[in-house]
Amino acid sequence: MTEQGDIPDDLPGKPTSASRTTLSHIMTSHDTNLLGTVHGGVIMKLVDDAAGAVAGRHSGGPAVTASMDEMAFLEPVRVGDLLHVKAQVNWTGRSSMEVGVRVMAERWNESTPATQVGSAYLVFAAVDADGKPRRVPQVIPETEQDNRRNQEAQIRRTHRLARRQAIKALRERRAAEGYED
C-alpha cells in the first residue's frame, strides 16, 4: 500500500484505447466571434471537455486540468461545421496525465473528409474526494503512433519542468535583488 491508503502499489496499467474518446458538436451562430467564425474559447472548452473525459476514464475517477501546454488553431471553424474532438492519454506519471487532442471539422451537409483544424496538449491531475493527488494507472501504448506520442509527451514534460524551475529561479533572484513583481 501507499500513503494514499486504498490504492495498491501494483495498480494495473491501461491501454491507450481504453479511454480514447471523440466528442462531436455542430457549430451554430451562438458559437461565433465578431469575425463570424467559431470563437477559439468555444473550441478550447470542447477540447477541455473531451480531455477531461479521457483523463477521468483513464484514472478511474475525478481529474482536474492542471495546464494546457499548447493549443494550435490551424484553420478557422465556421457555423455549420461538425467538430470532432478526438482525445487520448499520451503519457502518465504518478498522479498526472498528458492528454493529446486533435480537432477535426467537416461540413454538416457534405460528404467530404474532415480536416484537422486544431490540436492541443493538456495535463490533468487525478484527485481523490478531498482534492488530493491520487495514483493513476500507467498508460500502455498499443501502436507505433502511441509510442511516438508517449515519447513526445515525455519531452514536453521535461520542458515544462525545466521552464517552471527557470522561472522560479528568476523570481527568487529578482526578489533577492529587491524587485517587486
3D architecture notes:
The protein is of the alpha+beta class and 181 residues long. The protein contains 2 helices and 7 strands. The chain has helices spanning 40-59, 144-176, and strands at 14-15, 21-26, 63-73, 81-92, 96-107, 115-126, 139-140. The strands form 2 sheets. A 5-stranded antiparallel β-sheet has the order 2-4-5-6-3. The protein has a two-stranded parallel ribbon with strand order 1-7. It is globular, with a radius of gyration of 19 Å. The model is unreliable at 1-7 (pLDDT under 50).
List keywords for this structure.
single chain; 181 residues; alpha+beta; five-stranded antiparallel β-sheet; 7 strands; 31% strand; disordered N terminus
What is this structure, in a nutshell?
The chain is α+β, with helices and mostly antiparallel strands and 181 residues long. It is built from two helices and seven strands.
Proportion of residues in helical segments: 25-40%
Rounded to the nearest angstrom, the radius of gyration is 19 Å
**General shape:** globular
Mean pLDDT: 93
Beta-sheet strand percentage? 25-35%
Order of helices and strands: EEHEEEEEH
Write down how many β-strands occur, each being a DSSP E stretch of 2 or more residues: 7
Q: Could you give a short account of the major beta sheet? A: 5 strands, antiparallel
Note the total helix count.
2
Distance between the termini: 43 Å
- Strand order across the largest sheet: 2-4-5-6-3
Structural class: alpha+beta
Report low-confidence residues grouped into runs of 5 or more: 1-7
